[in-house]
Amino acid sequence: MSEESAERAREMVDAVYRSDSRRVLATLIRLLGDFDLAEEALQDAFAAAVEQWPRDGVPTNPRAWLVSTGRFKAIDGMRRRARFDESLAGIAERLESDVPETAVWDDESVVDDRLRLIFTCCHPALPPDAQVALTLREVCGLTTEEIAHAFLTAAPTVAQRIVRAKSKIRDARIPYQVPTVADLPERLDAVLRVIYLVFNEGYSASSGESLTRRDLSGEAIRLGRLLMELLPEPEVGGLLALMLLHESRRTARTTPDGALVLLGDQDRSLWNRDQIAEGRALVQRALESRRFGPYTLQAAIAAVHAEAPTAAATDWAQIVGLYDVLRRADPSPVIELNRAAAVAMRDGPEAGLALIDGILARGDLADYHLAHSARADLCRRLRRTAEARASYERALELARQEPERRFLERRLDELRDGDR
C-alpha cells in the first residue's frame, strides 16, 4: 500500500471511531456481557485497525470488522488470563460458542444494541446521578473528566458513580435488553427523564459562573435524536421538540458580558428559526398522535412562545389552558408556579401573586429560588416594595448560579434606588 493509501486508511480509522465507536461498543457489551470488558475490547479493536488497515486496506464493512476483532481479542485475553483463573476459561468457551457470526454485525441487531444500552444505563435500579453519568459515558462517549466538568463535580466522584453503576448492573443481573411492550412506558419515562436532566443542566446550569453549557445541552439533543431514530414514540418526539424550542433561544438569553435576559426582554431576531420550525413540526406530530404526555405539553407551551412575534403578542390564554392540561397530566408545584406566572400575564399580577402565595403557604417550593424570584417580581409590579425586597433577598440566598445572582442583585439595587 502506498503512503497516500496508508494515510487515507488512518483517516478512515479516525472517521469510523468518531461515527461508529459507540455503536461498536453497544454490540460488544451485548456479546461480552460486561461493560469494562467491552470497553477494553473496543480499544483493542481500534488499535488493531490502526496497525492493519494502512497495511491490508480498509475492510468492506469496517464496523463488522471492529466488532468481530474486538470480540475475538476479548476471548483471547480471557484464555491467557485463564492460566491464573480457571473460571475464565469456561467464560471464554461460552462467549465463543454463544453467538452465531451472522448475529454479530447484523444492522437490525446493532440498532437493538443501541437501544439496549440506553435502557440499561437508565435502569430504575440505578441512582439518578449514576444513570446520568453512565449514559453520558457509555452512550455519548464523554470522558469522566468531561462529565465532571459539566456537572461541577470532582472526577473521582463521577468515576465512582460509574464503577458502582456497572457493578450494580453485573451483581443484580440487570438484563441488557429493550423492555417488553408492557414495561416500555415506565422504562421509557426513566430514559426521557435522564435525557431531560442532562439538557436542563446544559440549558440552565444549576450552579457556577455560566448560565448555560452548550456542550451538555447539545449531547442531550443528540441523545434525543438517537432515541427518536431508534424508538419514534410520540413522547420521544415531544421531548426532542421541547429541547429544540428551548435551545432556539440560547443566544438571546444572555448579554455579551453574560448577564441574564428574561424571556420577555429577549431579542427574538436572535432565536434560531430552523430549530423552532423543527420543534413545532415535532409537537404537531406528537399532538396528532393522541398518545402524548407531559414533555409534549411543555413543548406545546414553548411553541406558543416561539410563535409570538413579540412578547406583548404572546397568547397567554392558550398558555394557561395548556398548563391546566399539564397540571392534570403531571401535577407538581413547579408546574403550578409556571402556571401562576402565566396567569399573572393573562389576568394581572395580583391574580398570579395569590396563586404563588398559596403554593408557598403549603410549604412547597420554600427553598426554590425561582418561586421567591417570581413572587418578588409580581410584588415589584404591584409597587409592594418591602415585600419585593424581602422575596428578592430570599431568592438571592438560595440561588447558586452567578448570572442569576447578579440579576437578583441588580433588581435589589433598582428597588433601593427607587426608595431614594
Query: What is the succession of H and E elements?
Result: HHHHHHHHHHHHHHHHHHH
What would the average pLDDT be, to the nearest integer? 87
| Residue share in β-strands | under 5%
| Backbone structural class | mainly alpha
Number of helical stretches of at least 4 residues: 19
Please describe the biggest sheet, giving its number of strands, its sense, and whether it closes into a barrel: none
In helices, the fraction of residues equals: over 70%
Please mark out the parts with pLDDT under 50 across 5 or more consecutive residues, or reply none.
Answer: 100-105
Distance between the termini: 82 Å
Which overall shape is indicated by the principal axes computed on the Cα atoms? elongated
Q: Would you report the number of β strands?
A: 0
Rg on CA atoms, Å: 26 Å
**Oligomer category:** single chain
